[in-house]
Structures
1.
Amino acid sequence: MGEYKLVVWDVDGTLLNTSDGIIASAKYAIDRFGLEIPGDDVMKTYIGPPIQDSFARTLPVDEQMAKDMADVFRERYKSEDLFKAYPYDGVISLLRELQANGIKQAVATYKRQDYAESIVEHFGMSCYMDAVCGSDFAGNLTKADIIGNAIAAVGICDRKRIVMIGDTVNDSLGAAKMGVDFVGVSYGFGVWDDTDVVSLAADVNDIRMILLGKE
Protein backbone atom coordinates (compact mmCIF):
# COMPACT_ATOMS: atom_id res chain seq x y z
CA MET A 1 0.00 0.00 0.00
CA GLY A 2 1.39 3.35 -1.02
CA GLU A 3 1.10 6.93 0.16
CA TYR A 4 -2.48 7.98 -0.40
CA LYS A 5 -3.93 11.36 -1.29
CA LEU A 6 -7.57 10.26 -1.03
CA VAL A 7 -9.34 7.84 1.31
CA VAL A 8 -12.87 6.86 0.25
CA TRP A 9 -14.99 5.51 3.10
CA ASP A 10 -18.01 3.26 3.15
CA VAL A 11 -20.49 4.14 5.92
CA ASP A 12 -22.47 1.11 7.12
CA GLY A 13 -20.15 -1.26 8.97
CA THR A 14 -17.08 0.90 8.34
CA LEU A 15 -17.51 4.38 9.81
CA LEU A 16 -20.75 3.70 11.67
CA ASN A 17 -22.51 0.75 13.23
CA THR A 18 -25.93 1.37 11.69
CA SER A 19 -27.39 -2.06 12.39
CA ASP A 20 -30.12 -1.07 14.86
CA GLY A 21 -31.71 1.52 12.58
CA ILE A 22 -31.52 -0.49 9.36
CA ILE A 23 -32.85 -3.68 10.91
CA ALA A 24 -35.68 -1.83 12.68
CA SER A 25 -36.85 -0.20 9.44
CA ALA A 26 -36.46 -3.43 7.45
CA LYS A 27 -38.58 -5.33 9.97
CA TYR A 28 -41.19 -2.57 9.82
CA ALA A 29 -41.41 -2.82 6.02
CA ILE A 30 -41.56 -6.62 6.04
CA ASP A 31 -44.33 -6.59 8.64
CA ARG A 32 -46.29 -3.93 6.71
CA PHE A 33 -46.43 -6.30 3.74
CA GLY A 34 -47.58 -9.22 5.88
CA LEU A 35 -44.45 -11.29 5.45
CA GLU A 36 -42.60 -13.37 8.00
CA ILE A 37 -39.57 -11.57 9.41
CA PRO A 38 -36.36 -13.57 8.81
CA GLY A 39 -34.05 -14.59 11.62
CA ASP A 40 -31.29 -12.41 13.01
CA ASP A 41 -28.55 -13.94 10.84
CA VAL A 42 -30.49 -13.05 7.69
CA MET A 43 -31.44 -9.60 8.93
CA LYS A 44 -27.77 -8.76 9.51
CA THR A 45 -27.14 -9.25 5.78
CA TYR A 46 -29.44 -6.28 5.09
CA ILE A 47 -26.80 -3.88 6.37
CA GLY A 48 -24.85 -2.35 3.50
CA PRO A 49 -26.40 -3.54 0.21
CA PRO A 50 -29.28 -1.71 -1.51
CA ILE A 51 -32.34 -2.53 0.56
CA GLN A 52 -34.51 -3.62 -2.37
CA ASP A 53 -31.84 -6.17 -3.32
CA SER A 54 -31.92 -7.56 0.22
CA PHE A 55 -35.70 -7.89 0.16
CA ALA A 56 -35.59 -9.63 -3.24
CA ARG A 57 -32.80 -11.96 -2.11
CA THR A 58 -34.36 -13.12 1.15
CA LEU A 59 -38.13 -12.90 0.73
CA PRO A 60 -40.74 -14.43 -1.63
CA VAL A 61 -41.34 -11.17 -3.52
CA ASP A 62 -41.07 -10.04 -7.13
CA GLU A 63 -39.08 -7.04 -8.33
CA GLN A 64 -41.96 -4.57 -8.04
CA MET A 65 -42.88 -5.67 -4.54
CA ALA A 66 -39.25 -5.39 -3.45
CA LYS A 67 -39.23 -1.81 -4.74
CA ASP A 68 -42.50 -1.02 -2.96
CA MET A 69 -41.10 -2.43 0.27
CA ALA A 70 -37.96 -0.36 -0.22
CA ASP A 71 -40.11 2.78 -0.45
CA VAL A 72 -41.76 1.92 2.88
CA PHE A 73 -38.36 1.18 4.40
CA ARG A 74 -36.93 4.53 3.29
CA GLU A 75 -39.82 6.55 4.67
CA ARG A 76 -39.57 4.80 8.03
CA TYR A 77 -35.77 5.00 8.08
CA LYS A 78 -35.77 8.73 7.33
CA SER A 79 -38.41 9.59 9.93
CA GLU A 80 -37.55 7.19 12.76
CA ASP A 81 -34.36 5.17 12.46
CA LEU A 82 -31.65 7.01 10.49
CA PHE A 83 -29.72 8.14 13.55
CA LYS A 84 -29.96 4.85 15.46
CA ALA A 85 -26.24 4.33 14.95
CA TYR A 86 -22.85 5.11 16.46
CA PRO A 87 -19.28 5.62 15.21
CA TYR A 88 -16.87 2.76 15.73
CA ASP A 89 -14.21 3.34 18.38
CA GLY A 90 -11.43 5.58 17.10
CA VAL A 91 -13.12 6.61 13.85
CA ILE A 92 -13.47 10.33 14.59
CA SER A 93 -9.89 10.66 15.80
CA LEU A 94 -8.61 8.86 12.69
CA LEU A 95 -10.61 11.14 10.38
CA ARG A 96 -9.13 14.12 12.20
CA GLU A 97 -5.60 12.70 11.95
CA LEU A 98 -5.89 11.96 8.24
CA GLN A 99 -7.09 15.50 7.60
CA ALA A 100 -4.19 16.89 9.65
CA ASN A 101 -1.82 14.89 7.44
CA GLY A 102 -3.24 16.51 4.31
CA ILE A 103 -5.12 13.43 3.10
CA LYS A 104 -8.42 14.10 1.33
CA GLN A 105 -11.42 12.03 2.41
CA ALA A 106 -14.78 11.16 0.89
CA VAL A 107 -17.79 8.97 1.57
CA ALA A 108 -19.14 6.48 -0.98
CA THR A 109 -22.23 4.70 0.35
CA TYR A 110 -25.29 2.87 -0.92
CA LYS A 111 -27.35 5.13 1.33
CA ARG A 112 -29.50 7.58 -0.61
CA GLN A 113 -27.70 10.90 -1.15
CA ASP A 114 -29.84 12.90 1.28
CA TYR A 115 -29.55 10.21 3.96
CA ALA A 116 -25.78 10.04 3.48
CA GLU A 117 -25.40 13.79 3.92
CA SER A 118 -27.65 13.82 7.00
CA ILE A 119 -25.98 10.96 8.84
CA VAL A 120 -22.43 12.16 8.13
CA GLU A 121 -23.40 15.61 9.40
CA HIS A 122 -25.24 14.26 12.44
CA PHE A 123 -22.24 12.28 13.68
CA GLY A 124 -19.79 15.13 13.22
CA MET A 125 -17.92 13.73 10.23
CA SER A 126 -18.80 16.21 7.49
CA CYS A 127 -16.03 18.60 8.49
CA TYR A 128 -13.48 15.93 7.57
CA MET A 129 -15.02 15.00 4.21
CA ASP A 130 -14.22 16.64 0.89
CA ALA A 131 -17.18 14.86 -0.71
CA VAL A 132 -20.18 12.80 0.40
CA CYS A 133 -21.60 10.60 -2.34
CA GLY A 134 -24.59 8.30 -2.01
CA SER A 135 -27.01 6.43 -4.21
CA ASP A 136 -29.61 8.01 -6.47
CA PHE A 137 -33.26 8.03 -5.39
CA ALA A 138 -34.05 5.02 -7.60
CA GLY A 139 -31.15 3.02 -6.19
CA ASN A 140 -29.72 2.31 -9.64
CA LEU A 141 -26.09 3.31 -9.04
CA THR A 142 -23.52 0.57 -8.48
CA LYS A 143 -20.86 0.85 -5.80
CA ALA A 144 -18.31 1.50 -8.55
CA ASP A 145 -20.49 4.37 -9.82
CA ILE A 146 -20.63 5.91 -6.35
CA ILE A 147 -16.89 5.51 -5.77
CA GLY A 148 -16.31 7.12 -9.16
CA ASN A 149 -18.54 10.05 -8.21
CA ALA A 150 -16.55 10.56 -5.01
CA ILE A 151 -13.23 10.49 -6.87
CA ALA A 152 -14.51 12.97 -9.45
CA ALA A 153 -15.88 15.29 -6.77
CA VAL A 154 -12.54 15.46 -4.97
CA GLY A 155 -10.52 15.68 -8.18
CA ILE A 156 -7.67 13.27 -7.45
CA CYS A 157 -6.66 11.79 -10.81
CA ASP A 158 -3.91 9.31 -9.85
CA ARG A 159 -5.78 6.10 -8.99
CA LYS A 160 -2.66 4.66 -7.35
CA ARG A 161 -3.00 7.36 -4.69
CA ILE A 162 -6.59 6.42 -3.82
CA VAL A 163 -7.84 3.74 -1.41
CA MET A 164 -11.37 2.54 -0.67
CA ILE A 165 -12.18 1.26 2.81
CA GLY A 166 -15.26 -0.90 3.35
CA ASP A 167 -16.68 -4.01 4.95
CA THR A 168 -18.26 -5.95 2.07
CA VAL A 169 -17.33 -7.68 -1.16
CA ASN A 170 -19.41 -5.06 -3.00
CA ASP A 171 -16.98 -2.42 -1.72
CA SER A 172 -14.03 -4.54 -2.85
CA LEU A 173 -15.48 -5.15 -6.31
CA GLY A 174 -16.35 -1.47 -6.72
CA ALA A 175 -12.82 -0.45 -5.81
CA ALA A 176 -11.35 -3.00 -8.23
CA LYS A 177 -13.56 -1.74 -11.06
CA MET A 178 -12.40 1.82 -10.40
CA GLY A 179 -8.74 0.75 -10.28
CA VAL A 180 -8.06 1.82 -6.69
CA ASP A 181 -6.62 -0.02 -3.70
CA PHE A 182 -8.95 -1.55 -1.15
CA VAL A 183 -8.81 -2.20 2.59
CA GLY A 184 -11.47 -4.50 4.01
CA VAL A 185 -12.56 -4.19 7.62
CA SER A 186 -13.49 -7.34 9.49
CA TYR A 187 -15.32 -5.52 12.30
CA GLY A 188 -18.27 -4.64 10.04
CA PHE A 189 -21.05 -6.75 8.56
CA GLY A 190 -19.41 -8.37 5.56
CA VAL A 191 -18.02 -11.90 5.42
CA TRP A 192 -14.53 -12.42 4.05
CA ASP A 193 -12.91 -15.68 3.01
CA ASP A 194 -9.53 -16.73 1.67
CA THR A 195 -10.54 -15.96 -1.92
CA ASP A 196 -11.05 -12.26 -1.17
CA VAL A 197 -7.75 -10.63 -2.12
CA VAL A 198 -7.76 -7.64 0.19
CA SER A 199 -5.86 -6.18 3.11
CA LEU A 200 -7.94 -6.75 6.22
CA ALA A 201 -8.20 -4.43 9.21
CA ALA A 202 -9.50 -5.90 12.45
CA ASP A 203 -10.14 -2.49 13.97
CA VAL A 204 -9.70 1.23 13.34
CA ASN A 205 -6.16 1.13 14.68
CA ASP A 206 -5.26 -1.37 11.94
CA ILE A 207 -6.59 1.12 9.37
CA ARG A 208 -4.37 3.80 10.92
CA MET A 209 -1.36 1.50 10.61
CA ILE A 210 -2.11 0.81 6.94
CA LEU A 211 -2.71 4.45 6.01
CA LEU A 212 -0.21 6.24 8.22
CA GLY A 213 2.23 3.55 9.29
CA LYS A 214 1.73 4.24 12.99
CA GLU A 215 -0.50 3.25 15.88
2.
Amino acid sequence: MSTAPPGIEQEGQDGVDGHLLLIGWRNQAVPAVNALGCRVTWVVTPGEAAQVRDEGFTQDLVLVADPTNPEQILAGLARSGYTLAGFTAVGSDLEFTLVAASVVGELAGARCLPVRTAVLLRDKVAQKNALRAAGLPVADTLAIGDLGELAEPPMSPPFVVKPPLGAGTTDTWVLRDEAEIAALLGSRGRDTAGPWAVESFVTGHEVQIDGVVRGGRVVRLAVSRYLQNLILIREGAVNASVVLDPDRYAVMYERAHELVARSLEILEHRDGVFHMEAFDQGDRLVFSECGGRTGGALTRQQLGRQFGLDLMDEWARSLVGLPAGVLDEYRSEHVYGYTLLLPPEGRIEHVPDLKEVLGRPGVVEGSVSLKKGDVWGRLLHSSQRAGRVLVRGADEEELVTRLHDIGEWFRSAVVVSPVP
Protein backbone atom coordinates (compact mmCIF):
# COMPACT_ATOMS: atom_id res chain seq x y z
CA MET A 1 0.00 0.00 0.00
CA SER A 2 1.30 3.42 -0.95
CA THR A 3 0.06 6.69 0.52
CA ALA A 4 1.20 8.98 -2.31
CA PRO A 5 1.43 8.66 -6.11
CA PRO A 6 4.88 7.34 -7.08
CA GLY A 7 4.92 9.21 -10.36
CA ILE A 8 5.31 12.70 -8.90
CA GLU A 9 8.91 13.90 -8.97
CA GLN A 10 10.05 16.16 -6.13
CA GLU A 11 12.83 18.72 -6.31
CA GLY A 12 15.75 18.43 -3.90
CA GLN A 13 16.09 21.43 -1.60
CA ASP A 14 19.88 21.41 -1.71
CA GLY A 15 20.47 19.88 -5.12
CA VAL A 16 20.65 16.23 -4.04
CA ASP A 17 19.51 14.16 -7.02
CA GLY A 18 18.05 10.69 -7.11
CA HIS A 19 15.46 8.69 -5.22
CA LEU A 20 16.28 7.30 -1.76
CA LEU A 21 14.52 4.19 -0.45
CA LEU A 22 14.54 3.77 3.33
CA ILE A 23 13.68 0.46 4.99
CA GLY A 24 12.34 0.49 8.55
CA TRP A 25 11.44 3.52 10.66
CA ARG A 26 13.82 4.80 13.34
CA ASN A 27 12.74 7.32 15.92
CA GLN A 28 14.04 10.87 15.23
CA ALA A 29 15.33 10.03 11.75
CA VAL A 30 12.78 12.21 9.94
CA PRO A 31 14.48 15.63 10.39
CA ALA A 32 17.77 14.33 8.99
CA VAL A 33 16.02 12.68 6.06
CA ASN A 34 13.96 15.78 5.28
CA ALA A 35 17.12 17.91 5.36
CA LEU A 36 18.53 15.95 2.40
CA GLY A 37 15.96 17.62 0.17
CA CYS A 38 15.77 14.67 -2.21
CA ARG A 39 12.92 12.37 -3.14
CA VAL A 40 12.41 9.69 -0.48
CA THR A 41 10.18 6.64 -0.22
CA TRP A 42 9.99 4.97 3.19
CA VAL A 43 8.98 1.36 3.86
CA VAL A 44 7.33 1.06 7.29
CA THR A 45 4.64 -0.97 9.02
CA PRO A 46 1.03 0.26 9.12
CA GLY A 47 1.39 0.78 12.87
CA GLU A 48 4.35 3.13 12.36
CA ALA A 49 2.83 5.29 9.63
CA ALA A 50 1.11 7.77 11.95
CA GLN A 51 4.30 8.36 13.95
CA VAL A 52 6.32 8.96 10.80
CA ARG A 53 3.77 11.53 9.66
CA ASP A 54 3.66 13.13 13.12
CA GLU A 55 7.44 13.63 12.94
CA GLY A 56 7.00 15.60 9.72
CA PHE A 57 7.65 13.17 6.86
CA THR A 58 5.29 14.10 4.00
CA GLN A 59 6.61 12.01 1.11
CA ASP A 60 5.62 8.51 0.07
CA LEU A 61 5.17 5.64 2.51
CA VAL A 62 5.02 2.01 1.44
CA LEU A 63 3.33 -0.10 4.11
CA VAL A 64 4.34 -3.72 4.70
CA ALA A 65 3.75 -6.12 7.58
CA ASP A 66 7.44 -6.95 8.06
CA PRO A 67 10.14 -4.60 6.73
CA THR A 68 12.85 -7.09 7.77
CA ASN A 69 11.66 -9.44 5.01
CA PRO A 70 12.96 -8.69 1.47
CA GLU A 71 10.00 -10.56 -0.07
CA GLN A 72 7.52 -8.27 1.67
CA ILE A 73 9.52 -5.18 0.75
CA LEU A 74 9.72 -6.16 -2.91
CA ALA A 75 6.03 -7.06 -3.01
CA GLY A 76 5.05 -3.81 -1.30
CA LEU A 77 7.06 -1.78 -3.78
CA ALA A 78 5.51 -3.66 -6.70
CA ARG A 79 1.98 -3.12 -5.34
CA SER A 80 2.73 0.58 -5.13
CA GLY A 81 3.93 0.81 -8.72
CA TYR A 82 7.66 1.09 -8.12
CA THR A 83 10.45 -0.60 -10.04
CA LEU A 84 13.82 -1.15 -8.36
CA ALA A 85 15.63 0.61 -11.18
CA GLY A 86 14.07 3.87 -10.04
CA PHE A 87 15.99 3.98 -6.76
CA THR A 88 19.50 5.41 -6.60
CA ALA A 89 20.19 4.66 -2.91
CA VAL A 90 18.77 2.24 -0.33
CA GLY A 91 19.49 2.17 3.39
CA SER A 92 18.34 1.77 6.97
CA ASP A 93 19.30 2.91 10.47
CA LEU A 94 17.33 0.12 12.11
CA GLU A 95 19.22 -2.92 13.39
CA PHE A 96 16.73 -5.51 12.19
CA THR A 97 16.24 -4.11 8.67
CA LEU A 98 19.90 -3.53 7.85
CA VAL A 99 20.38 -6.73 5.84
CA ALA A 100 17.03 -6.44 4.05
CA ALA A 101 17.94 -2.92 2.92
CA SER A 102 21.26 -4.15 1.54
CA VAL A 103 19.63 -7.06 -0.32
CA VAL A 104 17.10 -4.74 -1.95
CA GLY A 105 19.81 -2.16 -2.65
CA GLU A 106 22.06 -4.63 -4.44
CA LEU A 107 19.11 -5.95 -6.46
CA ALA A 108 18.37 -2.37 -7.48
CA GLY A 109 21.99 -1.67 -8.38
CA ALA A 110 21.75 1.30 -6.03
CA ARG A 111 24.14 2.89 -3.56
CA CYS A 112 23.87 0.78 -0.40
CA LEU A 113 25.76 -1.08 2.28
CA PRO A 114 27.19 -4.26 0.70
CA VAL A 115 25.24 -7.37 1.69
CA ARG A 116 28.35 -9.10 3.05
CA THR A 117 29.09 -6.10 5.25
CA ALA A 118 25.49 -5.89 6.45
CA VAL A 119 25.53 -9.57 7.43
CA LEU A 120 28.82 -9.19 9.30
CA LEU A 121 27.43 -6.15 11.12
CA ARG A 122 24.38 -8.15 12.19
CA ASP A 123 25.42 -11.74 12.91
CA LYS A 124 27.45 -11.89 16.13
CA VAL A 125 29.07 -15.26 15.36
CA ALA A 126 30.14 -14.35 11.82
CA GLN A 127 31.32 -10.93 13.00
CA LYS A 128 33.49 -12.13 15.86
CA ASN A 129 34.93 -15.05 13.93
CA ALA A 130 35.98 -12.69 11.12
CA LEU A 131 37.71 -10.37 13.58
CA ARG A 132 39.38 -13.19 15.49
CA ALA A 133 40.72 -14.66 12.25
CA ALA A 134 42.35 -11.29 11.58
CA GLY A 135 44.01 -11.27 15.00
CA LEU A 136 41.81 -8.82 16.92
CA PRO A 137 41.12 -9.40 20.64
CA VAL A 138 37.57 -10.79 20.83
CA ALA A 139 35.65 -13.51 22.67
CA ASP A 140 35.78 -17.10 21.43
CA THR A 141 32.42 -17.57 19.71
CA LEU A 142 30.49 -20.47 18.20
CA ALA A 143 26.90 -21.33 17.26
CA ILE A 144 24.61 -24.05 18.60
CA GLY A 145 21.21 -25.08 17.31
CA ASP A 146 19.41 -25.63 20.60
CA LEU A 147 19.90 -24.63 24.23
CA GLY A 148 19.72 -28.32 25.11
CA GLU A 149 23.27 -28.64 23.77
CA LEU A 150 24.42 -26.69 26.84
CA ALA A 151 23.85 -29.82 28.92
CA GLU A 152 27.29 -30.74 27.61
CA PRO A 153 28.77 -27.22 27.29
CA PRO A 154 30.80 -26.49 24.13
CA MET A 155 33.20 -24.37 26.20
CA SER A 156 34.07 -24.00 29.87
CA PRO A 157 32.01 -21.54 31.95
CA PRO A 158 31.67 -18.68 32.37
CA PHE A 159 30.20 -17.98 28.96
CA VAL A 160 27.44 -15.87 27.42
CA VAL A 161 24.48 -17.16 25.43
CA LYS A 162 22.56 -14.84 23.10
CA PRO A 163 20.74 -14.80 19.74
CA PRO A 164 23.26 -14.33 16.91
CA LEU A 165 20.90 -11.84 15.23
CA GLY A 166 19.63 -10.15 18.38
CA ALA A 167 19.94 -6.62 19.71
CA GLY A 168 20.64 -5.23 23.16
CA THR A 169 20.52 -7.88 25.87
CA THR A 170 17.24 -9.55 24.91
CA ASP A 171 17.44 -13.31 25.57
CA THR A 172 21.02 -12.94 26.79
CA TRP A 173 22.44 -14.79 29.80
CA VAL A 174 25.76 -15.11 31.61
CA LEU A 175 26.20 -18.74 32.67
CA ARG A 176 28.90 -19.19 35.30
CA ASP A 177 28.50 -22.81 36.33
CA GLU A 178 26.48 -26.00 35.88
CA ALA A 179 23.79 -24.79 38.28
CA GLU A 180 23.10 -21.67 36.19
CA ILE A 181 23.04 -23.74 33.00
CA ALA A 182 20.50 -26.10 34.57
CA ALA A 183 18.40 -23.17 35.82
CA LEU A 184 18.26 -21.64 32.33
CA LEU A 185 17.27 -24.92 30.71
CA GLY A 186 14.61 -25.46 33.36
CA SER A 187 13.15 -21.99 32.91
CA ARG A 188 12.89 -22.30 29.12
CA GLY A 189 10.93 -25.55 29.07
CA ARG A 190 10.46 -26.50 25.42
CA ASP A 191 11.41 -23.04 24.19
CA THR A 192 15.03 -23.87 23.44
CA ALA A 193 15.31 -23.79 19.64
CA GLY A 194 17.99 -21.55 18.21
CA PRO A 195 20.31 -20.88 16.67
CA TRP A 196 22.21 -19.39 19.60
CA ALA A 197 25.61 -17.74 19.90
CA VAL A 198 27.84 -19.01 22.70
CA GLU A 199 30.84 -16.85 23.55
CA SER A 200 33.46 -16.79 26.26
CA PHE A 201 32.84 -14.27 29.04
CA VAL A 202 35.06 -11.20 28.69
CA THR A 203 36.09 -9.18 31.74
CA GLY A 204 36.52 -5.41 31.80
CA HIS A 205 34.40 -2.26 31.95
CA GLU A 206 32.06 -1.87 28.99
CA VAL A 207 32.35 1.21 26.78
CA GLN A 208 30.50 2.31 23.67
CA ILE A 209 32.25 3.91 20.70
CA ASP A 210 30.18 5.84 18.18
CA GLY A 211 31.22 7.72 15.10
CA VAL A 212 31.49 8.29 11.37
CA VAL A 213 33.45 6.44 8.68
CA ARG A 214 33.95 7.79 5.15
CA GLY A 215 35.92 6.21 2.35
CA GLY A 216 37.24 3.67 4.84
CA ARG A 217 38.62 6.39 7.13
CA VAL A 218 37.30 7.01 10.64
CA VAL A 219 36.63 10.75 10.56
CA ARG A 220 35.08 11.14 14.02
CA LEU A 221 34.45 9.01 17.09
CA ALA A 222 33.38 9.47 20.68
CA VAL A 223 33.79 7.12 23.63
CA SER A 224 31.28 6.72 26.46
CA ARG A 225 31.31 4.29 29.35
CA TYR A 226 28.39 2.44 30.81
CA LEU A 227 28.07 2.85 34.56
CA GLN A 228 27.42 -0.90 34.75
CA ASN A 229 27.99 -3.55 32.09
CA LEU A 230 24.75 -4.21 30.24
CA ILE A 231 25.20 -7.97 30.48
CA LEU A 232 24.29 -7.57 34.17
CA ILE A 233 20.82 -6.12 33.47
CA ARG A 234 19.10 -9.29 34.73
CA GLU A 235 21.04 -8.90 37.97
CA GLY A 236 19.85 -5.34 38.56
CA ALA A 237 22.22 -3.20 36.48
CA VAL A 238 20.85 0.02 34.96
CA ASN A 239 21.45 1.16 31.38
CA ALA A 240 23.30 4.43 32.02
CA SER A 241 26.23 6.08 30.24
CA VAL A 242 28.63 9.02 30.52
CA VAL A 243 30.66 10.61 27.72
CA LEU A 244 34.42 10.44 28.25
CA ASP A 245 36.55 13.55 27.75
CA PRO A 246 39.12 13.10 24.94
CA ASP A 247 41.86 14.88 26.90
CA ARG A 248 41.33 13.13 30.21
CA TYR A 249 41.04 9.77 28.43
CA ALA A 250 43.55 10.33 25.63
CA VAL A 251 44.93 6.78 25.79
CA MET A 252 41.40 5.35 25.69
CA TYR A 253 40.59 7.40 22.60
CA GLU A 254 43.79 6.30 20.89
CA ARG A 255 43.01 2.64 21.56
CA ALA A 256 39.40 3.13 20.47
CA HIS A 257 40.49 4.66 17.17
CA GLU A 258 42.86 1.78 16.49
CA LEU A 259 40.21 -0.84 17.33
CA VAL A 260 37.51 0.85 15.28
CA ALA A 261 39.71 1.45 12.24
CA ARG A 262 40.90 -2.15 12.11
CA SER A 263 37.47 -3.63 12.85
CA LEU A 264 35.67 -1.61 10.18
CA GLU A 265 38.38 -2.51 7.67
CA ILE A 266 37.79 -6.22 8.32
CA LEU A 267 34.01 -5.82 8.21
CA GLU A 268 34.39 -3.71 5.02
CA HIS A 269 32.21 -0.95 6.47
CA ARG A 270 33.59 2.04 4.58
CA ASP A 271 30.82 4.65 4.55
CA GLY A 272 28.25 5.49 7.21
CA VAL A 273 28.01 5.46 10.98
CA PHE A 274 28.89 2.83 13.56
CA HIS A 275 27.94 1.89 17.09
CA MET A 276 30.58 -0.32 18.71
CA GLU A 277 30.97 -1.76 22.19
CA ALA A 278 34.20 -2.94 23.78
CA PHE A 279 35.62 -3.94 27.16
CA ASP A 280 38.29 -1.81 28.79
CA GLN A 281 40.76 -4.16 30.49
CA GLY A 282 43.13 -1.43 31.60
CA ASP A 283 45.91 -2.19 29.15
CA ARG A 284 43.76 -2.81 26.07
CA LEU A 285 40.27 -2.73 24.57
CA VAL A 286 38.64 -6.06 23.72
CA PHE A 287 36.07 -5.96 20.92
CA SER A 288 32.48 -6.79 21.91
CA GLU A 289 30.29 -6.06 18.87
CA CYS A 290 29.61 -3.46 16.19
CA GLY A 291 26.50 -2.23 14.40
CA GLY A 292 26.21 -0.19 11.21
CA ARG A 293 23.70 2.24 12.70
CA THR A 294 23.43 5.02 15.25
CA GLY A 295 23.38 4.07 18.92
CA GLY A 296 20.26 3.48 20.98
CA ALA A 297 18.87 4.91 24.22
CA LEU A 298 20.03 8.56 24.38
CA THR A 299 23.47 7.95 22.86
CA ARG A 300 22.81 10.24 19.89
CA GLN A 301 21.53 13.00 22.14
CA GLN A 302 24.43 12.89 24.60
CA LEU A 303 26.98 13.10 21.79
CA GLY A 304 25.08 15.89 20.11
CA ARG A 305 25.16 17.95 23.30
CA GLN A 306 28.76 17.04 24.14
CA PHE A 307 30.47 17.42 20.78
CA GLY A 308 27.90 18.86 18.37
CA LEU A 309 28.07 15.49 16.60
CA ASP A 310 24.78 14.81 14.78
CA LEU A 311 25.03 11.10 14.05
CA MET A 312 21.58 10.87 12.48
CA ASP A 313 22.50 13.63 10.04
CA GLU A 314 25.79 11.87 9.26
CA TRP A 315 23.89 8.62 8.62
CA ALA A 316 21.49 10.35 6.22
CA ARG A 317 24.26 12.19 4.38
CA SER A 318 26.23 8.99 3.88
CA LEU A 319 23.23 7.26 2.29
CA VAL A 320 23.19 9.65 -0.66
CA GLY A 321 26.93 10.23 -0.92
CA LEU A 322 27.06 13.73 0.56
CA PRO A 323 30.32 14.64 2.31
CA ALA A 324 30.48 14.45 6.08
CA GLY A 325 28.98 17.41 7.91
CA VAL A 326 30.71 19.86 10.20
CA LEU A 327 33.14 17.73 12.21
CA ASP A 328 35.02 20.37 14.18
CA GLU A 329 36.37 19.90 17.68
CA TYR A 330 33.53 21.62 19.56
CA ARG A 331 33.17 20.48 23.16
CA SER A 332 30.61 21.58 25.69
CA GLU A 333 31.81 22.98 29.00
CA HIS A 334 29.53 20.42 30.65
CA VAL A 335 29.72 16.61 30.70
CA TYR A 336 26.68 14.70 29.45
CA GLY A 337 25.23 11.27 30.08
CA TYR A 338 21.93 9.44 30.28
CA THR A 339 20.14 6.88 32.38
CA LEU A 340 17.01 4.82 31.92
CA LEU A 341 14.46 5.19 34.72
CA LEU A 342 13.18 2.06 36.45
CA PRO A 343 10.36 1.58 38.97
CA PRO A 344 9.95 -1.13 41.62
CA GLU A 345 8.01 -4.26 40.64
CA GLY A 346 4.25 -4.21 41.04
CA ARG A 347 1.08 -2.52 39.77
CA ILE A 348 1.73 1.17 39.20
CA GLU A 349 -0.41 3.47 41.35
CA HIS A 350 1.49 6.74 40.90
CA VAL A 351 4.23 7.97 38.56
CA PRO A 352 6.09 11.31 38.71
CA ASP A 353 5.09 13.46 35.75
CA LEU A 354 7.56 14.77 33.18
CA LYS A 355 7.63 18.23 34.76
CA GLU A 356 8.87 16.72 38.02
CA VAL A 357 11.51 14.70 36.17
CA LEU A 358 12.77 17.71 34.22
CA GLY A 359 13.05 19.64 37.48
CA ARG A 360 15.67 17.30 38.92
CA PRO A 361 19.29 18.59 39.08
CA GLY A 362 21.06 18.53 35.72
CA VAL A 363 18.23 17.04 33.65
CA VAL A 364 18.07 18.64 30.18
CA GLU A 365 15.82 16.19 28.32
CA GLY A 366 13.54 13.40 29.42
CA SER A 367 10.48 11.26 28.87
CA VAL A 368 8.19 9.12 31.02
CA SER A 369 6.32 6.24 29.40
CA LEU A 370 5.05 4.47 32.53
CA LYS A 371 1.35 4.97 33.34
CA LYS A 372 -0.92 4.32 36.29
CA GLY A 373 -2.31 0.79 36.03
CA ASP A 374 0.74 -0.64 34.25
CA VAL A 375 2.30 -3.76 35.74
CA TRP A 376 6.09 -3.71 36.02
CA GLY A 377 7.88 -7.03 36.29
CA ARG A 378 11.43 -8.30 36.47
CA LEU A 379 14.03 -6.55 34.31
CA LEU A 380 14.88 -8.75 31.32
CA HIS A 381 16.75 -6.60 28.77
CA SER A 382 18.65 -3.34 28.41
CA SER A 383 15.90 -1.44 26.55
CA GLN A 384 13.30 -1.94 29.27
CA ARG A 385 12.41 1.38 30.87
CA ALA A 386 9.75 3.52 32.50
CA GLY A 387 11.43 6.66 31.21
CA ARG A 388 14.81 8.10 30.36
CA VAL A 389 16.73 11.30 30.99
CA LEU A 390 19.67 13.17 29.52
CA VAL A 391 21.69 14.76 32.31
CA ARG A 392 24.62 17.15 32.49
CA GLY A 393 27.19 17.90 35.18
CA ALA A 394 30.06 20.29 35.70
CA ASP A 395 32.42 17.30 35.54
CA GLU A 396 32.24 13.53 35.28
CA GLU A 397 32.05 13.02 39.04
CA GLU A 398 29.07 15.36 39.46
CA LEU A 399 27.36 13.78 36.46
CA VAL A 400 27.69 10.24 37.82
CA THR A 401 26.26 11.38 41.16
CA ARG A 402 23.32 13.03 39.41
CA LEU A 403 22.62 9.95 37.31
CA HIS A 404 22.54 7.75 40.40
CA ASP A 405 20.44 10.29 42.31
CA ILE A 406 17.71 10.67 39.72
CA GLY A 407 17.47 6.91 39.28
CA GLU A 408 17.03 6.41 43.01
CA TRP A 409 14.60 9.36 43.28
CA PHE A 410 12.39 8.04 40.46
CA ARG A 411 12.30 4.54 41.88
CA SER A 412 11.31 5.82 45.33
CA ALA A 413 8.73 8.25 43.90
CA VAL A 414 6.82 5.56 41.99
CA VAL A 415 4.06 4.03 44.11
CA VAL A 416 3.15 0.39 43.45
CA SER A 417 0.77 -2.18 44.85
CA PRO A 418 1.30 -5.95 44.91
CA VAL A 419 0.22 -8.00 41.90
CA PRO A 420 -1.75 -11.11 42.93
